[in-house]
């Protein structure tokens, strides 16, 4: 049996994975449960892991996977497909990952027909020039269930500023075109019409805050006329 706080955290992680495809940061979990420090979150995560409800993914900084939900709350959800990042096999000869990937290199005509091609618009890192995300470099194929409505594009991630959100150096993020965002969403933001960055969108009074998911990076705060949103994160692809 879970305590109330353990149950709240488990459901918060589960809902965030369903909505965004990535686990919440420790700061988000702390705020959602109204705890005073991250140490309380660490204890709750350890308890959930020991009880077999979640697991911490190896070699992925603070990335979490929900293994099951309490049967008394949602008996049908435990049979649902678990979240794992989409995978494209990087090269021939590498061993297959232990878990079945959601997306692999196309092996037959049916796979090709079922996928959707979207453009890769360069590489994004903290403060890269805007021109770096305005030139199409190539295209990738993604499964239809990864995107839903609207125009999409992809960006290759460089750097570790979003590791606590489960986004790592070398990942390819899938972005849906958008010019507005809700606080808490991860966005492609343009600052002063000069630089582009992938950060979590926040509001600080009348100002806009671009928040990294890595304590080594400071949150940057700007006047609302200095920041424009160019899209919202909807998924990612990881190469192994």
Automatic annotation (TrEMBL):
InterPro entries, A to Z: LexA, LexA-like, LexA/Signal_pep-like_sf, LexA_DNA-bd_dom, LexA_repressor, Peptidase_S24_LexA, Peptidase_S24_S26A/B/C, WH-like_DNA-bd_sf
CDD domains, per the entry: S24_LexA-like
GO molecular function, one term: serine-type endopeptidase activity
GO biological process terms, semicolon-separated: DNA repair; DNA replication; negative regulation of DNA-templated transcription; proteolysis; SOS response
One Pfam family hit: LexA_DNA_bind
Coiled coil ranges: none
Domain Peptidase S24/S26A/S26B/S26C as annotated: residue spans: 119-234
Domain annotation LexA repressor DNA-binding: ranges: 2-63
Catalytic activity from the UniProt record: Hydrolysis of Ala-|-Gly bond in repressor LexA
EC number(s) per entry: 3.4.21.88
Residues annotated as the enzyme's active site: 161 (for autocatalytic cleavage activity), 199 (for autocatalytic cleavage activity)
Site entry: Cleavage: 126-127
Key words, A-Z: Autocatalytic cleavage, DNA damage, DNA repair, DNA replication, DNA-binding, Hydrolase, Repressor, SOS response, Transcription, Transcription regulation
Function: Represses a number of genes involved in the response to DNA damage (SOS response), including recA and lexA. In the presence of single-stranded DNA, RecA interacts with LexA causing an autocatalytic cleavage which disrupts the DNA-binding part of LexA, leading to derepression of the SOS regulon and eventually DNA repair.
Entry similarity comment: Belongs to the peptidase S24 family.
HAMAP family according to UniProt: LexA
Subunit field text: Homodimer.
Name this protein carries in UniProt: LexA repressor
Native source organism of the sequence: Neomesorhizobium albiziae
Phylogenetic lineage: Bacteria, Pseudomonadati, Pseudomonadota, Alphaproteobacteria, Hyphomicrobiales
